[in-house]
Amino acid sequence: MDLLRELHPQALRIAGLLRARGQKVAVADGATGGLIAATLLTVPGALDVFVGGGVVYSFRARDVLFALPREAYAGMRGATADYALLQARAIRDNFGADWGLAESGAVGGSTHPSGAPAGRSVAALVGPGAEHTRLLETASDDRIANMAAFTRNALALLEAGLEPGAER
Predict the structure, then answer these.
(1) Percent of the chain beyond pLDDT 70?
(2) What pLDDT digit, counting tens, does each position of 98-136 carry?
């Protein structure tokens, strides 16, 4: 709960930017475990700017939320820019949002299925005329600290991408 209180002012700014644009976002939380969506939902009236999303923590969840054929992932590995961008596009499209935000990472404490090192996260943002990614490497195996850091990274990407002139 402390993390949500800390990030609430940023969520308010993001909601203000989305409202000013008349746009909405859908979120694919990966290693963040739902913290990105939870942060955005701290804003009263979040339904005005947040369409929905899901926690993509298994291949089954990925298949259901993104509805992409397995071939779409050919040659891709988790916690990479290409993988996160594919997820951001799919969550945006499948939820009918203007923006898609996805995070793919390895929080640590166990081995990542694709072998990504603990502490590595890639956030991807896809929207009108814009595609951005942001890599974060904490070099830490602290699962909880990484979840918080990955959430901060993804929200920072979203806020920066929504700033006036960011899509240019």
Answers:
(1) 95
(2) 999 999 998 887 666 677 888 999 999 999 999 999 999
- Please give the torsion angle defined by the CA atoms of residues 71, 151, 127 and 162, in that order, rounded to the nearest 10 degrees: -170
Give the count of beta carbons closer than 10 Å to the beta carbon of residue 18. Answer: 23
CB 30 within 8 A of CB 56: yes
Backbone angles phi, psi at 146, to 5 degrees: -65, -40
d(CA 149, CA 53): 20
Which residues on neighbouring strands pair with residue 137, listed in sequence order? 120
Q: Show contacts of 61-64: CB within 8 Å, 24+ apart.
A: 62/87
The backbone region for 27, taken as left when phi is positive above 0, alpha when psi lies in -120 to 50, beta otherwise, is: beta
According to DSSP, the β-strands at 25-29 and 50-55 are: parallel
Q: What is the spatial distance between Cα 153 and Cα 53, in angstroms, rounded to a whole number?
A: 18
